[in-house]
Amino acid sequence: MNPLIVVTGGSKGIGRAIANRFVAEGFDAIVCARSVAGLEEPGFLPVAADLSTRDGVNTLLNYIHSLNRPVDVLVNNTGVFLPGQIQDEAEGTFEQLMSTNVASAYHLTRGLVGDMVARRRGHIFMMCSTASITAYTNGGSYCISKFALLGMSRVLREELKIHDVKVTAILPGATLTDSWAGTDLPEERFLKPNDVADSTWAAYSLSKSAVIEEVLIRPQLGDI
């Protein structure tokens, strides 16, 4: 039986690139997104759910548990970006970003990590951002959520290392996905989704006795 990876926000961009890379390496991929149209491919197990809600997280967890297969890798990639400043961003922005970018990862991890601990095997990836370590003027609640996600990654690392479960935070800079649609900036100013996917695979591929705790990836010409 193929090893199993769960990728949230996996229908496009970084999530899709990670799912593609792991499937190419012999994994089956449970790919969750609000819309999973176009994901009916060999090795893909698509699940439609809105992970900004507990009901959506439970929908995904129920599907995973119904397979009765161990999860080898969890990639908490679901996220949303809304620009603005704390002082004037729209009411509800904080709650929306925290529920999507942080709470989804918290509840999904809690729902899967027990089996990893019991098996003393598993790797959890948190898709953070350079916004996890750098405050941007127009970042507002997005920066807050990504700082929180990195903090969660570090807490999990300390809690799970004695159980042989690995935790890696990925901190990519500007990546050429749909979030940048319509930009006038040249392609070379961005990371490519495959850059992040290749880095994730490389971190997973280390021996059992080694872990990459944090991966910081920026465009060669620096942040945008």
Automatic annotation (TrEMBL):
CDD domains attached to this UniProt entry: SDR_c
Task: Note one Pfam family from the annotation.
Answer: adh_short
The source's domain of life comes to: Bacteria
Show the Gene3D superfamilies listed in the entry: NAD(P)-binding Rossmann-like Domain (3.40.50.720)
Using the record for this protein, list the coiled-coil segments as residue ranges, or answer none.
Answer: none
Q: Does the keyword Cell membrane apply?
A: no
UniProt xrefs under InterPro entries: NAD(P)-bd_dom_sf, Sc_DH/Rdtase_CS, SDR_fam
Q: Which family does it belong to?
A: Belongs to the short-chain dehydrogenases/reductases (SDR) family.
State what protein this is by name. Short-chain dehydrogenase
Q: Which organism is it from?
A: Spirosoma radiotolerans
